Amino acid sequence: MNSQTQAKPWANQKAVRHYDLTPDQVQQLDNDQTWFFMSRLVARHLPPGSSLLDLGCAAGSLHSLLNKRGVKMQYTGVDVTPELIQAAKHRYPEINFQVASALELPFEDASFDVVFSKGTLFVTQDPHEALLQALRVAKRTLIVDLVLNKPGEPDQTVTTEDRGSVHLLGPQGLSELGRALSGCRVVSNLLNVGLTHRDQLHPAYQKMNYLKHLVLCVHKETK
Ligand SMILES: C[S@@+](CC[C@H](N)C(=O)[O-])C[C@H]1O[C@@H](n2cnc3c(N)ncnc32)[C@H](O)[C@@H]1O
């Protein structure tokens, strides 16, 4: 990993606590539109017993949510923030969680049937590299979300108080995204998910004057 992509754990305790969800709070995730769509995409594209990697897993919300719905999988969760991985291991001791950066994944190519990442690629120092890493370790399906800037505006990095930088894709980021996904089939792309009610957004995002959420589900084409 070079100095530009050096991943930092989240140090802001308010942000860390926000993502340390109890099992009861996990039950409420269907009220969040992004969770609603993304968790259903996973359930649909994960044949029973498949392996899934959750990048930026925080305290294991996805595992808990799918487990309650009876989805059977071999789950691995990674997150760069040690406190969140500690909380995940404490809550779900039988599950595989580890501290790792999305920018330098300690896994072989094509190690997981499905790679999932919600709310994470665009808060890493280098979303493009994180996407390439996610594609590298995925055998078949990638389900991720990104955020876009206003049409015509350039790529932008907005510094937030509690979660570091948030990267909004402009024309450059979108053409890099297109190149990265050139060997893939886009199964689903949902725009604007989660942003119907701006005042329900996390305060870190409310200060951005425009923000569009993009949820992507792609299959790697096998020759
Ligand atoms: C906005 S939270 C999303 C958490 C969870 N996926 C969700 O949607 O509720 C972003 C998560 O990404 C983690 N994170 C930030 N940079 C990362 C990186 N380079 N590698 C892995 N995880 C990272 C943070 O620690 C945090 O848990």
UniProtKB/TrEMBL annotation:
The keyword Transferase applies. One of its GO terms (molecular function) is S-adenosylmethionine-dependent methyltransferase activity. InterPro entries: Methyltransf_11, SAM-dependent_MTases_sf. The keyword Transferase applies. It comes from the Bacteria. Residues 53-140 form the Methyltransferase type domain. GO terms for biological process: methylation. SUPFAM superfamilies: S-adenosyl-L-methionine-dependent methyltransferases. It holds the Pfam family Methyltransf_11. Keywords: Methyltransferase, Transferase. PANTHER family: METHYLTRANSFERASE. This is SAM-dependent methyltransferase. It comes from Dethiosulfatarculus sandiegensis.
